[in-house]
Amino acid sequence: MNSAEFDRWLSQQQLTAQTQDLIASIRAAPPSRRVRGRAKNVSGTYPSRKMGATIQFESHTVELWAIYQMENDPDVLEFYDQPPPFKINYQNQTGRKIAHYHTPDFFVLRTSGAAWEEWKTETELNRLAQKYPSRYQKYETGNWHCPPGESYASTWGLEYRVRTNTELHPILTQNLMFLEDYFRFPHHIPPTIAEQILTAVRTNPGTNIAALLASVPGVRADDIYSAIATDQIYADLQAVPLAEHWRVRLWADIESYTAHTHSGLSVTSEIPPSTALLPNTPLLWDSQIWTLVNLGEKTATLLPETGSPIQLPTAFFLQLFDNGTIALHNSEQPATSNEAARALMDAASPAALTEANRRFHLVQAYFQHQTDIYRDVPQSTLSRWVKQFRTAEATLGCGYVGLLPRTHSRGNRQPKAPSDASELLDKFIVEHFETPRRSPGASVYRAYTRACQDANIQPLSQRTFYTRLKQRPQHQQILKRQGAKAAYSSEPVYLELSQTTPRHGDRPHAIVHIDHTQLDVELRSQATGRNLGKPWLTLLVDAYSRRCLSFYLTFDPPSYRSCMMVLRTCVRRFGRFPQSVVVDGGKEFHSVYFDTLLARYHCLKKTRPGGKPRFGSVIERLFGTTNAEFVYNLLGNTQASKQPRQLTKDIDPKSLAVWTLADLHTYLTEWAYSIYDNSVRDSLGATPLQVYTDSLAATGEREQRRIAYDEDFLMATRPSTSKGKALVQLGQGIKVNYLYYWNDAFRSPTVERTKVPVRYDPFDMGIAYAYLEGRWVKCISQYYSTFVGRTEKEVMLAAQEIRQQDKRNAAGSNISAKRLADFIAAVQEHETLLLQRLRDLEARSVRESLTVDRSQVPQLPKIGIPVLEVAGNRERTAIEPAVSQKIELVDVARLPILGEYR
């Protein structure tokens, strides 16, 4: 809301002046804290089109879903994350008084009023209600309340609400995510196509998307989704996911949908609510009762009352379900005795079933008076079996279960060890073995025997001690002895049984993962042949199709430069920016620069928990595949280095290294974009390219989200300084990273002594950019001939070395452009900078290949400084002579290789 709309809303609410000032301060204040991920929650930021800013969330299944709900709720006018905290008072379960500052999740302005809202799961609220009964309370209506929060809100005439995940509809949330591209970026539907769609829906109310695409020529999935998003046609977004074309019903408007629903009119291929097709749903097919075990994407599994389960293609099963051949079975269960009989059958072992089958055959022979069959069975044994059969048939309705052998209940099943010795043994296991000290088992047992002797107790045997250790929960034992990271591999996998949004998305570009790894291969310099170490690989992977969208290879450790280049490559290849990005806790993913870039292109950021690689299983698996299928086949791979005691000179990867960074990048490009892309993956059952192409056609091309790989995009990916602006100093220009940059536009009196936004190229410190009078202008640095082509990493290393020299000499650390230029000019005398220079030169050829045709990149005017030129599909920095001087580049191949600098 603008100021006029806000004042109008305040007048409608009839709030006090103090409350109006409070709401105004909340609207003007930034978030009171920055959210962070913990052990199992995924935090992140959401670019809100309603608020025009990024909104933080601490849970991608509760708070993020709430954001989607508020974003698309017309009743919600504004919502602010992490509002200013306030103090609450309450008591815990022991009666102890607690007082602290509390920060709610959101402050929401609705047409009916304003309220603080706290979102939590129902499970977490039940746990907190036991721990803090006076803070969280559940009423008989099922609603949750927070008396301390409501008490504070009532003093201002506002509300405090506790919201739970049960209020969030998973299918609705999935569909809102699916349609977000059409909400944010309007898709133009040709008038003739829009008329054909509306005519087809009116002619056949309740038709599905698949039938509409097949019957109306020229209609694409994009047109249908855009029509739904703009309310030209209606689809129940809470019924089924929009990606399932054969299940989504279309109507001319909501009135038609409501009329057909309330009137009970039959619709062709009518689909019941999605909740009716959950696992263990009883179905009636050909007068027999079946149980739906699983309804997967490709196959549906059905279990008959007797016999083996069968599998049907999901499309065929839904077709039978649509036409009524298979229907829901709504009859009550016959009797509870069947449940008892089934429990006995489920507990029976294969050997027990074999013995029961033999007994059943003999009992049936007895009933049929076939004496020759049971002649060898003692009469008393046969009589006991017949009695057990008839008793089970009378009480449980199934005589067969009475013949199951009961050997598991024979004998004395009570523990025979003395209780005092057993309790003491369990105590020593808990207090001495399952501790971070990680004492050996033999030491713990010796301490146990000494304690038994002191207490005059007969100790249990050592074999019993180790048996008892193995019977303890192994995950908890590893957690207590070795910590959470060691126990993560033994942690049970969480299986989501309810129908929620797919964790890998429902289409390409919906969820992508970015991460870095150091490749296990040693590389050499192309110019000098010197070993430069192992390169870093940055991958960007589509979670849905498992396709490698882009990668970047460099010698520099992970930084924002790697993130920038991998996103540049993605836009260059596909002309698309992902809808959401999953990253880890690395600092390169949490800079203002990276967050600004994602917000600029409406990309949601999710931060996975630290130390939980399963949250990034897609990209972690691709790292392993890259090593196994490509890197480990190269000469100089470092597998032998993982066993240093067995390493000899003949197999030392550093002596066997022959690959250069440019060659590795060339062949890695061929493997990632061709070989891997067209190889069948077990997790998909198809190739990543095939899944990507088919899904893109089915879920929409979304051409309205295309991004031009032009100078505007390149400028958005260039970083700025920590302050974002620089002062235009008289006669010197702007100062960026210790260097002054100049452009003739700085002579304007309206520009001098003003702070202007600045950006720089981290791969060429000879130039920077300043935003003047509505456009970006290119600026030349001091000592241009020295800094042209130098990377930011190299300049920072030089500045760091100058500081170290001044520290050793007890001199001031005033770093100027002249000192940096003089220091870099003597690069051949310094090994650290020499190695960095060699690595930068190796990486230059890699960056040169990451571009597009010349026609797609706007050409800047030539002013005697490097400009971006493109020849074919290769990008190169053309270093042209300045007007007043001739630039002479350093030939690194001729530089002498000196000893280690000390």
From TrEMBL:
One Gene Ontology term from the biological process aspect of the record: DNA integration
Gene3D superfamilies: Ribonuclease H-like superfamily/Ribonuclease H
Pfam families documented for this protein: Mu-transpos_C, Tn7_TnsA-like_N
Every Integrase catalytic domain range: 504-696
Highest taxon in the source lineage: Bacteria
SUPFAM superfamilies xref list: Ribonuclease H-like
PROSITE patterns per record: INTEGRASE
One Gene Ontology MF term: nucleic acid binding
UniProt-recorded name of the protein: Integrase
Source taxonomy: Bacteria, Bacillati, Cyanobacteriota, Cyanophyceae, Synechococcales
